């Protein structure tokens, strides 16, 4: 008869196998290098903005410093008094030779107001190739050359990028960076190894205007919370390939307190559960440390449970070093002491994600249907929007 001990033993063992596979996938990705071909079509970069988090100038400036022959950058806001406008004005003066523009447009096409902002920017874009990136991303000078290269192949509908998070001071910021680097990053690589990538990430979405129009444009995803996921999904359903570039962008958002971190991750986990229910349910086995702890308690601190717990500590400890090598980041100080807290928080949000359909999105409370569509709750209908769509957005 299957007992709780047997179940936890099986889950803990499967988790160990998952992390072994994840380490292999991370090593393979870390050995890849972005290839920048000589193909350099003109590009319109779309940057939806909302307020200034203190790092906005450096983030946006990195998109203006591109080693690329012809590109424009369109910055979008929906409020003429948005603080981000001052940052854009500074960049326009600093780079007079570049095609930089601020677009102020309060048109709303759906409950996902960030996508309304992006759709308004798209109307002003001059070029066929579009590159969309969240406002909290920072890139190197070779970014545009790298991400546009796969679009030479007409079978490619969309190019997307993973991102890394450089740890910032503060417990909340450190835990947020660990989530991106040590859970999200390897999980995506494992998923991409098991099946073709059919979704995108808000860190970067590069596509042709005509292929975007063929799936209904940005208007097709204006009702969805996971708009980046849906853009990739619609491209794939339309017969176009979604390519994961080996180029890594860097998340450079604001520091986070523990409360905002919790609600942000709960929003992301509920979004993931809705758009990919089976994959999300199976992701429960990625929480090896909490599972091994539960097995330890259930088994009465058996030798087998102690051994598996030690295996998981070793995998997470050594695996983390491999992850930070692949990401090109230093290993955070005190990381080993934070692992139990970080993994317990992830396990808790995984459990809580099954207990509701509502999410908090920068002051707005919204309900997400089983098909992933957004519905503002009455008390939050007039709250301000938020511009980011990545899991850490």
Proportion of residues in β-strands = 15-25%
**What's the CATH class of the largest domain, please?**
Alpha Beta
- Helix count, per DSSP? 13
Structural class: alpha/beta
Q: Any idea what the radius of gyration is?
A: 21 Å
Instruction: Please outline the major beta sheet.
Output: 8 strands, mixed
Q: H/E element string?
A: HEHEHEHEEHEHEHHEHHHHHEEE
- CATH names the topology of the largest domain as Spore Coat Polysaccharide Biosynthesis Protein SpsA, Chain A
Do you know the CATH architecture of the largest domain? Alpha-Beta Complex
Beginning-to-end CA distance, first to last residue: 45 Å
Number of strands: 11
User: CATH H level of the largest domain: which superfamily?
Assistant: Spore Coat Polysaccharide Biosynthesis Protein SpsA, Chain A
Low-pLDDT stretches are: 380-393
Number of domains: 2
Strand order of the largest sheet: 3-2-1-4-7-6-8-5
The gross shape turns out to be globular
Please tell me the overall pLDDT.
Answer: 88
Estimated helix fraction? 40-55%
Protein traits:
about 400 residues; alpha/beta; Spore Coat Polysaccharide Biosynthesis Protein SpsA, Chain A; eight-stranded mixed sheet; globular; disordered C terminus
Structure characterization notes:
This protein is α/β, with parallel strands linked by helices and about 400 residues long. The protein has 2 domains: about 5-30 and about 270-355, no CATH class; about 35-255, Spore Coat Polysaccharide Biosynthesis Protein SpsA, Chain A. It has 13 helices and 11 strands. The protein has helices spanning about 5-30, 55-65, 85-95, 115-125, 145-150, 170-195, 210-215, 225-235, 260-275, 275-280, 290-300, 305-325, 335-350, and strands at about 45-50, 70-75, 100-105, 130, 135-140, 155-165, 205-210, 240-250, 360, 365-370, 375. An 8-stranded mixed beta sheet has the order 3-2-1-4-7-6-8-5, with helices on both faces. Strands 9-10-11 form a 3-stranded antiparallel beta sheet. A hairpin with a 2-residue loop joins β9 (about 360) and β10 (about 365-370).
């Amino acid at each position: 008869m299957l007992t709780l001990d047997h179940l936890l033993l099986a889950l803990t063992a499967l988790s160990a196998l998952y992390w072994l596979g994840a380490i292999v996938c991370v090593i393979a990705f870390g050995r890849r290098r972005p290839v920048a071909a000589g193909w350099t079509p003109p590009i319109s970069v779309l940057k939806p903005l909302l307020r200034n988090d203190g790092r906005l100038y450096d983030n946006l400036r990195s998109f203006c410093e591109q080693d690329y022959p012809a590109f424009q950058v369109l910055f979008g806001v929906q409020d003429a008094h948005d603080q981000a406008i001052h940052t854009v004005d500074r960049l326009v003066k600093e780079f007079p030779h570049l095609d930089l523009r601020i677009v102020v447009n309060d048109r709303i096409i759906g409950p996902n107001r960030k996508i309304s902002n992006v759709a308004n920017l798209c109307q002003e874009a001059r070029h066929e190739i579009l590159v969309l990136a969240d406002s909290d991303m920072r890139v190197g000078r070779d970014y545009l050359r790298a991400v546009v290269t796969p679009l030479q192949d007409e079978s490619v509908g969309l190019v997307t990028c993973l991102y890394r998070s450089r740890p910032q001071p503060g417990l909340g910021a450190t835990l947020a960076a660990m989530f991106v680097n040590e859970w999200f990053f390897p999980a995506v690589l494992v998923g991409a190894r098991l099946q073709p990538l059919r979704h995108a990430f808000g860190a970067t979405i590069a596509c042709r205007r005509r292929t975007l129009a063929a799936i209904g444009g940005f208007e097709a995803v204006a009702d969805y919370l996971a708009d980046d996921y849906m853009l990739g999904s619609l491209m794939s359903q339309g017969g176009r390939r979604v390519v994961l570039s080996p180029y890594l962008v860097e998340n450079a958002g604001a520091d986070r307190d523990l409360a905002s971190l919790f609600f942000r991750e709960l929003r992301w986990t509920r979004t993931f559960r809705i758009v990919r229910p089976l994959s999300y349910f199976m992701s429960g086995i990625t929480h090896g440390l909490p599972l091994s702890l539960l097995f330890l308690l259930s088994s009465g601190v058996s030798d087998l449970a102690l051994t598996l717990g030690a295996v998981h500590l070793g995998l997470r400890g050594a695996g983390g070093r491999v992850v930070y090598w692949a990401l090109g980041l230093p290993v955070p100080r005190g990381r080993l002491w934070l692992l139990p807290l970080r993994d317990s928080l992830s396990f808790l949000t995984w459990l809580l994600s099954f207990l509701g359909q509502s999410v908090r999105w920068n002051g707005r409370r919204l309900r997400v249907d089983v098909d992933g569509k957004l519905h503002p709750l009455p008390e939050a209908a007039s709250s301000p929007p938020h511009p980011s769509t990545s899991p850490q957005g």
